[in-house]
Design brief:
Length: 294
C-alpha cells in the first residue's frame, strides 16, 4: 500500500500544479478498500500498483463531487474541501483527479480500460438516481438496491474484474465477488449511519434520512409499520430530527428488527461473494467488513 501512496504522489507531481498537491494532502486517505482489493487479487507489480492508484484517484474525485452534491461539511472526520475551499475548487479538484486517472488508464488494454471507464459512468448514473430518489420517500427496496449497485458496487466490481484480467484470473467470478462485496459494504455503511455516533463515523450520525436517503433499514421499517406510523415516519423524512424523533425511529427499528434484517441481507450478500471466490484473504475482507464500526 505504501507503493500505491507513492504512485498517487507521483501522478500528482506530474500535474505540476502545487495547489492540487496541497488540496489533496488535506484529504484523509480513508480505508483504501479499492486499492487493497486490486493488490490482493493481482499481486504487487508495477501495473497493479498503477491500477490501484488510478481507482483511488477516481474514488477520491467521486467523493469530492458527492460532498458538493450532498452539501456535506465533513468527510472522514475532516472538513470537506467544499467546506474549506468552496464548491468550485472541490469540483475542479475532482475533475483534475479523475481526468488524470483516465489518462493513465489508457496504458492498460482496451478491456481493462473499458471495465473501469464503464463503472465510472455507472457510478455517475447511480449518484443521479440517488439524488432523484431523495426527492420523495422511497419505500421500494429493489429500486434502492439497483441504485446502490450503480453508486457504490459498480466501481468495486470493476476493480475486482480488472485486477483479475490483469493477472489472468477468471474476470466473471471476481466481478461477482466485487459486486456483492460492494453492495454488502454500502449496506453496512447505511446501518452504521443509524447505529454509530458522530465521533466514530467522522460525519454526523443519522445523516442519511436527513439528506433524504431512505436506506434499507428505513425501507424495511416503513414496510413493517401500521399505516398511521408509516405516515409519521414519512413526515420525518428530510427534516432536522429532534432527539425524541430520533429515539422514536430507533425504537421502532428495534421493535421491527429493521437494522437486523438489513444486516442479515448484507451477510447474505457476503456469503454469495464468498461462494464465487475460494480465497481466504478475500473472505477475510468480507468478514472484516461485516464487523467494522466506521
Ligand atoms: C457516496 O455516496 C458517493 C459515491 C460512492 C459516488 C459518487 C459519484 C459521483 C459524484 C459521480 C462523479 C464521479 C466522478 C469520478 C467525478 P453517499 O453520499 O451515500 O455516501 P457518504 O455518506 O460517504 O457521502
Ligand atoms: Mg454523500
Amino acid at each position: 500500500m505504501e507503493m500505491v501512496e507513492q504512485k498517487i504522489q507521483e501522478l500528482l507531481d506530474e500535474l505540476d500544479f502545487e495547489s492540487v498537491k496541497e488540496l489533496f494532502s488535506q484529504l484523509s486517505g480513508g480505508k483504501r478498500l479499492r486499492a487493497k482489493l486490486v493488490l490482493k487479487i493481482a499481486g504487487v507489480n508495477d501495473k497493479s500498483v498503477l491500477l490501484a492508484a488510478i481507482v483511488e484517484l477516481i474514488h477520491a474525485a467521486s467523493l469530492l463531487h458527492d460532498d458538493v452534491i450532498d452539501e456535506a461539511t465533513t468527510r472522514r472526520g475532516k472538513p470537506s474541501i467544499n467546506a474549506t475551499d468552496g464548491s468550485k475548487i472541490a469540483v475542479m479538484l475532482g475533475d483534475i483527479l479523475y481526468s488524470k486517472a483516465y489518462s493513465k488508464l489508457v496504458f492498460f488494454g482496451d478491456e481493462i480500460a473499458k471495465t473501469i471507464a464503464d463503472s465510472v459512468t455507472k457510478l455517475s448514473i447511480g449518484e443521479m438516481m440517488d439524488v432523484k430518489m431523495g426527492d420523495e420517500f422511497n419505500a421500494d427496496d429493489k429500486r434502492y438496491l439497483d441504485m446502490l449497485y450503480l453508486k457504490t458496487a459498480a466501481l468495486i466490481e470493476a476493480c475486482a474484474k480488472a485486477s483479475a484480467m490483469l493477472c489472468g484470473k477468471n474476470p466473471h467470478s471476481y466481478a461477482l465477488y466485487g459486486k456483492n462485496l460492494g453492495l454488502s459494504f454500502q449496506i453496512i455503511d447505511d446501518i452504521l449511519d443509524i447505529t454509530s455516533d458522530e465521533k466514530t463515523l467522522g460525519k454526523p450520525a443519522m445523516n442519511d434520512f436527513r439528506e433524504g436517503k431512505t436506506t434499507l433499514p428505513y425501507i424495511y421499517l416503513y414496510n413493517s409499520l401500521p399505516n398511521d406510523e408509516k405516515n409519521r415516519l414519512k413526515s420525518l423524512h428530510k427534516k432536522d430530527l429532534s432527539k425524541e424523533e430520533i429515539m422514536w425511529i430507533k425504537e421502532k427499528m428495534k421493535d421491527y428488527r429493521s437494522v437486523e434484517k438489513s444486516y442479515e441481507y448484507a451477510k447474505k450478500l457476503s456469503e454469495e461473494a464468498k461462494k464465487s471466490i475460494l480465497d481466504d484473504e478475500l473472505h477475510k475482507i468480507l468478514d472484516n467488513l461485516l464487523q467494522r464500526s466506521f
